[in-house]
Specification:
about 0% strand, mainly alpha, globular, 9 helices
Length: about 240
């Protein structure tokens, strides 16, 4: 019974965090999906919603690693491990925010949805599909699926987070391309990441995911209005009140 106690406590803790993160995410992101190129708002607002999104999307696939840490330690180290893991995804989000602000600081009229926007979004999605087949992706996915917590909990969380960004960073770029504030695409991308990282034959799914992303990229590029769940920019006005 004592053997099961630590893993069960860890899973209950993780489940509570995930449920709370999804509840906050759904509440804050209702009606905010403006499709590809969604304005990310002020840095403080963006960071708050980004960290919550990452907790909602990524922590379910961290269950095996969190359980392993829970077996080796008790109490607070598990939370510290998860904090280190989320810190890496926060850095990813900051880099994406900086890139967004850099690109939008120039005259990017050619990125408009009635100009080259669909081709850029489709190209990003297709590129993520190609990345699925690269040795780097496969290496990072294997390391992310088989974490080896060693040393301080925060450092172990950061190390695992780096491998998971190497594994799932391309899929997260797909979310930005389709609409980073879209609850629909959050669920889809999060489910793919979970399948690759947790299911017994998740590594083999990379090929299927690659083909699906290449097809989706072409679909978005040439017929975006027919893609289910894709909000075309300008098609609706999201009710966003952000702190600029």
């Amino acid at each position: 019974m004592s053997v099961l106690a630590a893993p069960m406590r860890t899973l209950l803790l993780l489940a509570g965090l995930v449920v709370a993160a999804w509840a906050v995410t759904v509440e804050r992101m209702q009606g905010m999906d403006a499709g590809p190129g969604t304005d990310l708002g002020g840095l403080g607002w963006y960071l708050g919603i980004w960290v919550t999104m990452m907790a909602a999307m990524m922590l379910p696939s961290e269950a095996p690693a969190a359980v392993l840490v829970g077996r080796l330690t008790r109490g607070l180290p598990t939370l510290i491990f998860l904090a280190g893991y989320l810190a890496v995804w926060t850095a990813y989000g900051l880099a994406a925010y900086g890139l967004f602000r850099l690109v939008t600081s120039f005259d990017t009229g050619w990125l408009a949805w009635d100009e080259g926007g669909p081709y850029v979004a489709g190209g990003v999605i297709a590129a993520a599909g190609i990345y699925e087949l690269t040795p780097l992706k496969q290496y990072c996915l294997r390391r992310c699926r088989s974490p080896h917590p060693d040393g301080p909990a925060f450092r172990s969380g950061v190390a695992n987070g780096l491998f998971c960004v190497g594994s799932s960073g391309g899929l997260m770029a797909v979310l930005f391309a389709l609409g980073v504030m879209s609850l629909v695409w959050m669920v889809v991308v999060g489910a793919v990441i979970f399948a690759e990282k947790v299911l017994p034959h998740g590594i083999r799914l990379s090929g299927v995911v690659a083909v699906a992303l290449l097809a989706l990229g072409i679909w978005v590029a040439f017929s975006p209005s027919t893609v289910p769940g894709l909000t075309e920019p300008g098609g609706m006005s999201p009710s966003m009140e952000m702190e600029q």
